[in-house]
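Standup notes, structure subgroup. Blocker cleared on the inosinic acid input:
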Amino acid sequence: MQDYHDYLDQVLVNEEQLQARIAELGAEISRDYNGQPLHLICILRGGVMFLTDLMRQITTPCTVDFMAVSSYGTARKSTGQVRITLDLTEDIQERHVLLVEDIVDSGYTIRSVLELLETRKPISLKVCTLLDKPERREVEVPIHYRGFQIPNKFVFGYGLDIDEYYRNLPFIGTVDLDRYHPVDHD
Ligand code: IMP
Ligand code: MG
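Run returned:
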């Protein structure tokens, strides 16, 4: 298997920058919800690193739940159709809900999840994404809290994968796709 150093183009956001921004987001969220209980919904798997760091910076009482979705299409381009592969454990009716996502790219994932969750009648439903790639947007989606706006490049690390690997890296890097060879699992 290739080492990521072989195709790391550049470190886009380093560990220190990530943690500093997440502390700011946590403070902003804590201020906005101001002591009201907040229900965080993490979209697996990419959002998990962000969720765990973010929730440590939130001072309003919070609970957490998880859901997983998969988009139809190829690994790096979604088609607009999203399928729920793991649903929430708890009801969200009468709760303030904040969706925690790794990245908003085309916008299809967030749009589908928002449409689904709205039908379950939360008191409020907002979106917090670590990364936003606006150049790739195909559908309008609301983003209430945004960590970083990034250029139109494929990124990995800190929850984001390349073919499921490298989610554990503490920074976000860009890939040089010419130097990347997909893992052969056979
Ligand atoms: P969207 O539905 O196109 O907005 O895509 C959102 C999902 O695609 C994210 O939750 C990621 O899992 C994945 N994704 C989009 N861009 C990247 C990237 O640059 N690196 C890794 N995963 C990405
Ligand atoms: Mg992915």
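Discussed briefly. Residues 46, 161 surround magnesium ion (ligand 2) (CB under 6 Å).
Next: hand off to the docking folks.
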